[in-house]
Amino acid sequence: MELHATAVVSPAAKIGDGNHVGPFVVIEDDVIIGDGNRFEAHAVVKRGTRIGSGNVIHEHAVIGGTPQDLKFKGADSTVTIGDRNVIREGVTIHRGSREGSSTIVGDDNLFMVYSHVAHDCRVGNEVIIANNVALAGEVEIESKVFISGGVVVHQFTRLGRLAMIGGNSKIVQSVLPFFVTDGAPARLRGVNVVGLKRAGHTLDEIRLLKDAYRILIGSGLSLKAAIQEVQRIGSPCTDYLADFLLQTGPRGFHRRAIEAHGGPEPG
Fold it and tell me: Domains along the chain?
């Protein structure tokens, strides 16, 4: 381990091979760290944190902080972070709020400057969270979601796979997978064509998602009937979309704004 003389590392921390620990880094007890990570100057890794391998944690990031939850009473909880994540300057990721609970971050994610992940969130793989994004507690973010700068996300919401959220959006409901959601209040804006292409989806797959989008926002069907029509398309992506819709729960999901001609939203 490459350890700077000014770093403060608990002898009770379990640290693997090939880690770089920079100036004034603090690593508390009850911390488990894998191999080949970099901790830049003034990064803080608090108790209850578990970190995999190949991560880069930049200056003044704080991992495993106490939850900002009035119900928190000192529970023994954790933060679990996977491999190859990049956590930029000033990022905060808080541990779980309940006894035995955990905030979980997957692999290959990018957390840009001053983004915040609250207690008990679940972040998948290959997620990009831009500057000044704030996630409230118990938010679930599926893989390959792109969240633009300044977005705020309400607690207990779910952001579907390959969703793209526009800058400064206000997210108070679940966000459908494969689509662009933008605004305050946030509304569906169309299919995330760029993200889908980058993820390797074919033009035929994208066309079928466009068909599903038109059914959901332009058919005039009830939500139940619209989901049934989406299910009839029969592609892996549209099946996933239909299942997501069936699991959104009472909070619902962000939809398209009512059109100028006064047509109703599906539902």
Answer: 2-141 (2.160.10.10)
